[in-house]
Amino acid sequence: MGHDSVIIIGTGMAALVTALKLCNEKNVKLFSKNGIGDGNSWRAQGGIAVAIDHTDYPSNHYEDTLKAGGYHHNLEATMLMVEKGPALLRNWMEMGMEFDRDHRGHLSLGMEGAHNSRRILHAGGDQTGMRCMNFLQRLLPKNVEVIKEQVIDLQVTDGVCDGVVTKKADGNTNTYFAEAIVIATGGCGGIFQHTSNDPNLIGSGLTMAYRAGATLSDLEFLQFHPTVIHKNGKVIGLASEALRGEGARLVDEAGNITMENLHPYGDLAPRDVVARAIHENERLQKKNYLDITRIPKFKERFPHISKMCEEAGIDLKKGRIPVTTGAHFHMGGVVTDIYGRTSIERLYAVGEVARTGVHGTNRLASNSLLETVVFGTQVAEDILRRSSEVACKTKETHQTMKLGKEPDLPAKEDIRQYVSNALGVTRTSATLQGFLTWLENTGLQQWKDASWLNWKIETIERATMITTAWLIARSAMERTESRGAHFRVDFPQRQKKWRNAQLIHEGESLRAKRTKGWKTNDQQMVTS
Ligand code: SIN
């Protein structure tokens, strides 16, 4: 590898979108311990939010995104996402991606929390992620290589990222060089006991970016999905918000409607609000259920959820699915600009690991896949535009490693238990402080910046989980207010209302500049 080559760490949707856009001009190597086939993108149920209907507008989608996310956004990035989305998704459809349609052949758009209209593209009912990933995978040409090695560190020379170091199952390491490195490793739900995520997602991209010195931000904002299906304390899978979009209601065991009088949008309130209501019921020892009796043809519309429930022995004829909250999406991450560039030269981040600023403090439902489509394209275009400026090393190096001295770190299940107690739906100064002390007692300050190369993969993964948790806990401790998905019991009031007001004002003036052009979607573009 070398000039004309790009390394992408990850194999989810952000990685594939980026790779596809690059592959005509670049050799692309995707790195993932398990290859393509696992990760969160496959699990996505709800769909892709996009203002594609002729009655909808990017400006409406923008408003909903800001409102749900507490006006804590990068406005330029948010605007770019809602505006570029429709054309990119139309292009997917032209290339053969089939989203669900009604009996007249019109796109059947779903509804989810905090959206003011139906704008969710979905496929296979509740199998949107799987259908999209299959579609993208089919398009991948031969010069996109998938390497099943675990990237453990970024290679940074004189402030420029020029490669990655991988660890193989046999313990040996390889170093690969490329003209650009893209982190697309997804989120970190796997550090929690209850999560909708693939449990292998433990913040590896975040940790390696931190160790390389990249700027991170907003790490305290971690979204909990209010309807993770569970049985006997074990997570079965996700019950998409689309269920509530089609009429499902959250109830307790006595049949009381949980969201009644809690928010004007009721069951379709923003996710952070609903998650707190579910959490509060649990605190009061009440059980939570999704009542699905108002959804006609449930199995037809939601085949994947139906199958998961049936396999777990949850009887859908009773009309109730037991739910709890689960770690779902990280709004914070590696800070990027609108081209996915990080603070380190030639290092990009895309997808959930990136903090583009489009999600604020609480992501709007089904905006995550849209983010990957838009910013994967942005990243690839930037790499192509800048590639003539770049000279890079071509030689790969291989190192045989002997296992060395490594710290004795807590087991993954213990880490998950402590993380869930301290960094859950609600947080307090005392639990955060206690948790930080526990983390520090692992010897974190001695090992977090050391070389991990001659450690076992298991130890590296535990160290990654602890580092991710430490970064989030420190950020959560520092934000002494409740805002979006970060809820501090000891600081329940928003203390910085002025900042919201300022952002609304900035958004208004950006929008004003666009006059008529802003409200239109790309079908009916009217230029100012
Ligand atoms: C869901 O289907 O409820 C999840 C979609 C999302 O996370 O946006």
Explained architecture:
This protein has 16 helices and 19 strands. With 528 residues, it is of the alpha/beta class. It has 3 domains: 5-219 and 331-398, FAD/NAD(P)-binding domain, CATH 3.50.50; 224-328, Succinate dehydrogenase/fumarate reductase flavoprotein, catalytic domain (Flavocytochrome C3, Chain A, domain 1); 402-478, Fumarate reductase/succinate dehydrogenase flavoprotein-like, C-terminal domain (Methane Monooxygenase Hydroxylase, Chain G, domain 1). The strands form 5 sheets. A 5-stranded parallel beta sheet has the order 5-2-1-9-17, covered by helices on one side. Strand 6 and strand 7 form a beta hairpin. Helix 1 (13-22) runs parallel beside helix 5, helix 4 (75-94) packs across helix 11 and helix 12 packs parallel to helix 15 (457-478). The radius of gyration is 22 Å and the shape is globular. The chain starts with a strand and ends in a 9-residue tail after the last helix. The model is unreliable at 495-505, 512-517 and 520-528 (pLDDT under 50). Bound molecules: succinic acid. The site of succinic acid (SIN) has 9 residues, from loops.
What is the CATH architecture descriptor of the largest domain? Answer: 3-Layer(bba) Sandwich
| Domains (count) | 3
Largest sheet data: 5 strands, parallel
- Overall strand count: 19
Bound molecules: succinic acid
The name of the CATH topology of the largest domain is FAD/NAD(P)-binding domain
Beta-strand share of residues: 15-25%
Question: What structural class do you assign from the helix and strand content?
Answer: alpha/beta
